[in-house]
Amino acid sequence: MSTRREALKTIATGALGAAASSFWVDSLVAQAQAHHVRAAVLEASWKPRVLTAWQDKAVGILAERIIPETDTPGALAAGVNRFIDATLAGASPADRTSFLRGLAWIDARSKSLFGADIVEASPAQQTELLTRLAADGNPDGEDQTGREFFQAMKALTINGYYSTEIGLMQELGDDGQLFSLEFKGCDHPEHE
Fold this sequence. Notes:
Blueprint: H1 4-17, H2 23-34, H3 53-66, H4 80-90, H5 93-114, H6 123-134, H7 144-161, H8 165-171
């Protein structure tokens, strides 16, 4: 693929064309779409509310494999791992548990395939594992838990990335002139 936009278009099309996703994936994605990133997410003193330090690092690495740094910053620079943690903090306990179960699954799968956890695996190995999970028709027979986790991870990464200045302005070239015909405003109780 020649550009990141073409790659993301392919990922988005694949996500839409996949078999119906599990309820938890749909629920978590809806939570992410309703969630907005506050400036605090990018503060130096930020700490994860849901993810452990290792899980935060793993989520950041996986997000960076989905939207890597090219001529524009990637998912890590945009704070996508922080967006995902914030989304998980607002999610139902069941959805949060399902996501964390999927993260544990992908780590165990990395260990079985490469002899290294997902954080320690090489970038090529991380990409290979994600590619296996994204394959149409599941030719490698990957576990449903892993495939659902990857669906959620892709959707959360794309939502998180394109809700930031990096994603909107640097990647897409939005000059701030785009507008919505309807603005519902923030519905978080602390912002009313």
